[in-house]
Amino acid sequence: MRTDETPGAVRRVAAGSGRALASLGAPLWAAILFATIIAAVFVGFGGLRPASASPTEIGVDEEARTSLYAVTVLDAETTDAVEGRMEADPGETLVVATLRVENLSDRPIDIGGSVDRVEARLVNTAAPLLALVDAEPTDYARSWRTDGSPGTVVLQPDVPAVVQIAWPVPEGSLADGILRLDVHEPEITTGKVILSSDHISWDRGDLVARIAVPVEPS
Amino acid sequence: MRWSGRRASLIALLAAVVAVVAVHVWFDVVPTIESDEMTVVSADEAVDLAGQQLTLRSVRADEFEAPKGSHTVSVRLHSSGGAEATGCRSLLLGEQGDGRVWTPGTSELDIPSDAGESRCQAESPPYDILAVFVVPDDASGPFWFDVTDEDGRIVRFPVEF
Amino acid sequence: MRRGAPWAIGAALVVVAGVAVALTPPDIALTQAFSIHGGEGDAVTGRTLTAQVRDAAFAERVSTGDWEADGNWLVVSVAASAPQTEVDAAVILAALEVGDRTFHASERVRDSLLGTALRVGTDTVGMLAFELPADVDAGDADLRLITSYSTPQLDDVVVLPLSLDDLPSEAEIEIVAPEWEGF
Predict the structure, then answer these.
(1) Sorting pLDDT into bands at 50, 70 and 90, what band is A23?
(2) What pLDDT shows up at residue B14?
(3) Cα–Cα distance between C132 and C149 in angstroms, integer?
(4) Which CATH architecture has domain C31-180?
(5) Chain A residues closer than 8 Å to C104 by CB
(6) Which residue range forms the structural domain that includes residue A160?
(7) Please, is B124 exposed, middle or buried when counting C-beta atoms within 10 Å of its C-beta (0-12, 13-18, 19+)?
(8) ipTM of the assembly?
(9) Least packed by Cβ within 10 Å: which of B134, C13, C60, C116?
């Protein structure tokens, strides 16, 4: 091939491969564009974020904040009975924590049960959002407001409340005199199949904070 | 040959459909149909319910003070009581026709405590039951008065003024 | 077919599918409660409840007997009766919807209308107290009155509109136990 024919040859090869690509046609380009858009949306919405953050360690009077609730431990003690509320069985003791709890969701929640098909599962389930560490509750925990209000504690959205939660645990559970409470992020699931589809429950998600508070024996 | 084969399978399919529907209705639908066992009593007749004999003694209107726009309907029953007497689930007054139902307002009214019991009594000597209903003035009757025992058996006394 | 026609048709079908998905009600709509609305101040009647707002006011403190509590309280006076039967007739749950938040009438108030037996033909007038965050002091709200422990499925819920603008604000409101009207 003569050198002055090379540009022409190159042009012919380039044109040939261009025609090959073009012959694949518009569907390929549409697919590439579509995939790029999906990837951009994925990254844009945080798909490449690290999976979980590390939990913070906090103490008394410090707030642990999740996306749907916030809790601050004000005091902790062990006792055999809370007058008018709860008594420990023999061989057991009560761990009573005084907390400020704030409901940050948009519907009222109950600490231990369910309110109008919203079950917040903060305590009293197999995987509660507020979990005692180093101590296994032997029965249901009970909660009440410290101002003597009757009835179960219903937390209204964005209205903080000072409550006490008492867990019955085996005697000698908190050996080092420190109450550790794990605070978990709630993951909202709605009922399917067995429960009606408007039944909302807060399932245990990532650990957000571990509260460690010295316990006063009484 | 091919025709009868097709027909046979069709008949079998239809029979299966009928059988499945029948089994479902028998086991799942029929038990849920509530059958109220109700006895309608004519006036002055004594009837057995909740281990005791009940007789309608009187029905009076306006016997007690009621809110403006309504009046009281007081129903008195006599019960024989007895060792086998048990409690009743409810005492209800209903309007024949449009079906409004009232429950006794005895606790909110000023009724002397010796005028009668507000519920069926278990294992007691003969006693009187007094049930007072607060009924709006536009309810003129006729009514019925139902006593239901703990098993769900109902005795209905027609009430007219 | 012209060269661009399949593309145009395909794009149109995708758009139609997107619209259909967007318009389809969620599963929850199959068993949702029926909301019965009325005008402000009107009496609204559902299957198990007839209710009307009589009065409403904000208060910094509510008290009943020897119990009291401070906060941003909204006290609503409601007249309620049963339209058909007195059996199981009571307002068990009262929900106030303001913006995108829902508040329930406080269980802390002993003499509220919650749980009081309602009558056919006679109104019972009682109070409902809502504990609200400090930033809720105006706006339009809906008061939903329910005669069961949770929002029913496929049954009526009475919805009373309530405007929070221009409501009086008291220092303290004493909750009065429910009573029959006209007595």
Answers:
(1) low
(2) 95
(3) 21
(4) Sandwich (2.60)
(5) 108, 115-116, 154, 156
(6) 56-217
(7) middle
(8) 0.86
(9) C13
